[in-house]
Amino acid sequence: DTAVSQTPKYLVTQMGNDKSIKCEQNLGHDTMYWYKQDSKKFLKIMFSYNNKELIINETVPNRFSPKSPDKAHLNLHINSLELGDSAVYFCASVSGVGTDTQYFGPGTRLTVL
Amino acid sequence: GENVEQHPSTLSVQEGDSAVIKCTYSDSASNYFPWYKQELGKRPQLIIDIRSNVGEKKDQRIAVTLNKTAKHFSLHITETQPEDSAVYFCAAPENFGNEKLTFGTGTRLTIIP
């Protein structure tokens, strides 16, 4: 019954590794986002997809590559992980655009050692 | 783009007292102002929102007021309870396309029993 789900919940890895985070929503929403929340709790948007099409790409290093195989899924692949990538990554979805309720996933806590 | 400032960054109130958190925004065309609550270790969740055609909206113990002339909006929580302890985020949309929300920096609210 979960509306927005993410896997894994926790990810601990070494610097230089490549990792992926997966997100799925069963709300029938058209738009999905990736946010990064750092240790100070700042929520920063990274990417947004609408119906599998990339519509927002903030100034994120190109080591981060989102992929949307269909409108219910949005994955995030990170190459060559760095210490500064340690954060909680949230996926979110919204029915229309930014002026509707965003539903967040439970978050993935990434720790890079 | 939209710039959202949120104050205070931390707030402690006695249980039963009121709490007020204020946000200012820069884009005068912004028309939607949500507030999200994030409990410790959990995902952000929408608690109330207001659109620019009204000046105030209430939902039980929480209310949001909007002053479009001054470009600020506030969250008011009355009769605070321990379960109100959380980080609260305001947000406003980037009005070019309305695709994304810009979040404030968050307010950590602690209710003292």
H-E order of chain A: EEEEEEEEEEE
The 3D shape of chain A can be described as globular
Number of strands of chain B: 11
In angstroms, what is the radius of gyration of chain B?
A: 14 Å
Q: Whole-number average pLDDT of chain A? A: 93
Mean pLDDT of chain B: 94
Share of residues in strands of chain B: over 45%
- Beta-strand segment tally of chain A: 11
Structural class of chain A: mainly beta
Q: Indicate the low-confidence ranges of chain B by residue numbers.
A: none
CA gyration radius of chain A, whole angstroms = 13 Å
Gap from first CA to last CA of chain B: 41 Å
Which percent range fits the helix content of chain A? under 10%
How would a textbook summarize the main sheet of chain B? Answer: 6 strands, mixed
Oligomer status:
heterodimer
Order of helices and strands of chain B: EEEEEEEEEEE
The most extensive contact between chains is: A-B, 22 and 26 residues
Describe this structure in words.
- The complex is a heterodimer of chains A (113) and B (113).
- In chain A, 0% of the residues lie in helices and 56% in strands.
- In chain A, the strands form 2 sheets. In chain A, strands 2, 4, 5, 6, 9, 10 and 11 form a 7-stranded mixed beta sheet that branches. Chain A has a 4-stranded antiparallel beta sheet with strand order 1-3-8-7, with no helix packed on it.
- With 113 residues, chain A is mainly β.
- Chain A has no helices and 11 strands.
- Chain A has strands at 4-7, 10-13, 19-25, 31-37, 43-50, 53-57, 64-70, 73-78, 87-94, 103-104, 108-112.
- Chain B is mainly β and 113 residues long.
- Chain B has no helices and 11 strands.
- In chain B, a hairpin with a 4-residue loop joins strand 7 and strand 8.
- The A-B interface holds A 31, 33, 40-45, 48, 50, 55-56, 90, 97-99, 101-102, 104-107 and B 31-32, 34, 36, 38, 42-46, 49, 51, 87, 89, 93-94, 97-103, 105-106, 108.
